[in-house]
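go over whats below:
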Amino acid sequence: SMWGSAPPPFYDDEPTPTTTVEYQALVAECLDQLQEWRFGDAWTHTKSLWRLVLAGSSCPSSPFNGLPVSVLGRIKGFLGQGLSEAYVNWDEYAHNTPGVKLLEKPIEGYSLPMWRIEGVLPATIEECLSVLNNSDFERRKKIDKFLKKLEILENPASNISVEYLEYSGIFPVSGRDAAYYKALHTELDGTTVLFGQTINRKDKPQTSGAVRCKAKAGMFFIPTPGDPFHTKIVGFALVDPMGNIPKWLINKGKAIAPSVITLLANMLEDKFGDPQERLTLHKAETAHVHSTGSSVPSAVSSLSSSSSVGPDGGLMSSLIELQSKLITLLERTTEMEKNSRHPVKKQGSLLSFFRSPLVLLSLWPLLLILIYHSRGGFRKLFNRLFPSVNK
């Protein structure tokens, strides 16, 4: 038989979502995995801090209560400033394409390494997505010449679509096919992520002669401060072809990958124009608007431009202090959780729970009521609720 033949069309370790809720859970899990691949351990700490902010945004006693989404986005961007691309255990692959970084990382249980690609595209995020996130077979084939078939199966949610993909093989390797969901997520700081993974679909069996593969992939589209016409991209791909792939073909795939970014960049520039000329024109138009006294939202906003008192009531100027407090709260919570799991300190676990910052924030109204009623009001309330007890 040909290389890579005979795997089953369905896999026990692949998800089989059937409802919108199940798809949304998969999307959240996959997005979190991609963030971890990108930022490493630092993502775990930042995620915990952000959860504290979100919890506070609906708590009356929190300084974050009632803040507009735009301000929350700035806070999240500020918390993320400490994050940097993590390259632990990543090996850079040497190639001749300028401006593109290609790395690989071995993953246990996979015959192929995980690939990571970074570069800059000469277009806005929306323009990049108009080329990459579409269901037109001919347009997709310009980017991926091995794409043989593309079929939309369903749209479980407004930001989720399920596709069937078939790819032609290169002798002696069989072609591959997959049922794959893709999702679109936009962060509050403007970063947009296009991502997805393979799934089982009982209504879409394996194509005869093709091998059903497994994959999880995603691409971050990151805005460039001060320049909306250049978008940084950071992409990840973890693929299991479910069969033997000759080493020469793997090396050929590595060699082609950086040039795909160049091809995409050329397509974007041909379609939307020279990014530098567009930026110059944009700056001139913005300067003209400001000189006439009009006020329009800037196409690019950065955290540093919000240091003065504005609609957020001066919140941005105190973010450093708030971040420090959040980190302190997180460290205390983490330490208490560790102590509560220690055998010697088991009896203090309940106290640790009630000393948690989030628990205190949510229980403070109850504490005030108890204090008030401890002065006699509590007995009056009891008599009103249970008059028969006092008769």
Observations:
- DSSP finds ten helices and ten strands in the chain.
- The chain has a mean pLDDT of 77.
- The CA atoms of residues 151 and 164 lie 5 Å apart.
